[in-house]
Amino acid sequence: MQLRVLGGHQVESSSGRPIAFLIDGRIAIDAGGLLGALSMAEQQAIEAVLITHYHYDHVRDLPFLGLAALDAGRQIAVHCTDLVRDALQRHLLCPPLWLDLFAGPDPSAPRFLHRPVAPGVAFQVGGYAVLPIANRHHSVPVVGYQVTTPHDRRLFYTGDTGPGIRDTWALVDPDVLITEVTVPDELGEVAHLAGHLTPATLEAELIAFRDEKGRLPRVMVCHVNQVREDEVLAQLDGVARRLQAPIELAREGTLIDL
């Protein structure tokens, strides 16, 4: 498995895009900044999208992905909860803003094929086993995904989360953990209200992981807000030193091989 970071931040700038990952060029996880770094040929290779939740920075590029699929006569499987699908149909993929790509424009052959996701119910995508994990620690319901290769190598992406994600550690066993830190510790109250991590709260969750598993996986952090990125990175360096384990930023263009 090769995972490519297409968007590793919370907002858009010349140095970063909102959240999107791509596995083997075919399977997207979230679609915030999915398309800006891809050629049309690369976009046409996407067969499936796994969506964690309906916030705009995780779904923004779905309308353009669907329009390109319409023009090419292709269909794309969109794996998400009914809650996410309903929100997309009501607020993003809907007239007068756009086409409802789950229902048409030809109802007999919609561009997006909804594949309902239920936490704890595994499914197969592109030869990988995918386990959806309920994450109740953001401001809206989130589904994280553990993706397992045929050789039992595992990637777990928590999606957006605040403190408490440790309650999922017993359910997963990743070689690579991708999670978030959005703002520095000084904005801890704001992060708590919005359901996000800071470096300090991430440290507590990683200590809980180590206590649960007796080890730490490779840790990559995404969803950093670029306005305060320098502060976040400096504080993450301190966390890494205390844990005696590297913590990497999921920068755009990063490749992870499993």
Put the structure in a nutshell.
With 258 residues, this protein is α/β, with parallel strands linked by helices. It is 26% helix and 25% strand.
Q: What does the model show?
A:
Helices cover 26% and strands 25% of the residues. The protein contains seven helices and 14 strands. It has helices spanning 40-44, 56-59, 62-72, 82-91, 188-194, 199-213, 229-243, and strands at residues 2-7, 20-23, 27-29, 48-50, 76-80, 112-116, 123-125, 128-135, 142-148, 154-157, 176-180, 218-222, 247-249, 255-257. The strands form two sheets. A seven-stranded mixed beta sheet has the order 6-5-4-3-2-1-14. Helix 6 runs parallel beside helix 7 (229-243). It is globular and about 55 Å long. The model has no long low-confidence stretch (mean pLDDT 97).
Mean pLDDT: 97
DSSP strand (E) fraction?
15-25%
* Helical content class: 25-40%
Cα-atom Rg, whole angstroms?
Answer: 18 Å
Distance between the first and last residues' Cα: 5 Å
- Indicate the CATH architecture: 4-Layer Sandwich
Shape designation:
globular
The largest sheet, given as strand count, sense and whether it forms a barrel, is:
7 strands, mixed
CATH topology category name: Metallo-beta-lactamase, Chain A
CATH class wording:
Alpha Beta
By CATH's scheme, which homologous superfamily applies? Ribonuclease Z/Hydroxyacylglutathione hydrolase-like
Q: Strands across the major sheet, in which order?
A: 6-5-4-3-2-1-14
* Domain tally: 1
Order of helices and strands: EEEHEHHEHEEEEEEHHEHEE
How many strand elements? 14
Class by SSE composition: alpha/beta
Counting DSSP H or I runs of 4 or more residues, the number of helices is 7
Runs in which pLDDT lies below 50 for 5 or more consecutive residues are none
